[in-house]
Amino acid sequence: MPPAVPTSAEEQEAKELDDLAMDIAVEESRVASGTSVFPEVEIFINTLVLTTLQRYNLHADAAMAAALLVQRCGSFNRRSLDVISSKAYFYFSLAFENVQRLGEVRPTLLKVSPFLSQPQCC
Predict the structure, then answer these.
(1) What gap in Å lies between CA 54 and CA 75, rounded to an integer?
(2) Tens digit of pLDDT for each residue in 28-83?
(3) Structure confidence at residue 12 (pLDDT)
(4) Which residue in 27, 33, 25, 104 sits closest to 63, CA to CA?
(5) Where are the domains of the chain?
(6) Do residues 95 and 76 lie in contact, with contact meaning Cβ atoms separated by under 8 Å?
């Protein structure tokens, strides 16, 4: 008996399932690697989370989130992040000021201050 010949509908469905499996595999590998497509979006959303934590007076959580945010900002080397990261550093110092640990902020800010004060023209 000859093998069943797949119809065009079956072929199309099999192709769609293969494409879906490939998309899922690519998405899982991207999530597992911890990379983001646009670092600007990632930093902006984290800044929004940080401001929300501060708005609801969750100062300890805000300080922890701010420390992670500043660490993440330091892992990127993009000039397009300067504006967003400057806001992140402001909220970082504000969060630590609210938990009475402002002294812990100084080394981090001094480390990044040469990069933040460089002229952007020329």
Answers:
(1) 24
(2) 555 555 565 788 899 999 999 999 999 999 999 999 999 999 999 888 888 888 88
(3) 76
(4) 104
(5) 39-116
(6) no
Q: What value, to the nearest 5°, has the Cα angle with vertex 89 and ends 84 and 92?
A: 125
Sign of CA dihedral 80, 82, 85, 87: negative
Residues 85 and 104: beta-carbon distance below 8 Å: no
Residue 31: the pLDDT is: 54
C-alpha distance from residue 2 to each of 5, 7 (Å): 9, 15
List of residues 6+ apart from 43 with CB closer than 8 A? 69, 72, 73, 76, 81, 84, 85, 88
For helices 59-74 and 82-98, give the axis angle rounded to 10 degrees: 150
* pTM: predicted TM-score of the whole model, two decimal places: 0.64
The residue to which tokens 């646009």 are assigned: 38
Nearest to 91 by CA among 33, 50, 53: 50
Amino acid of residue 4: A
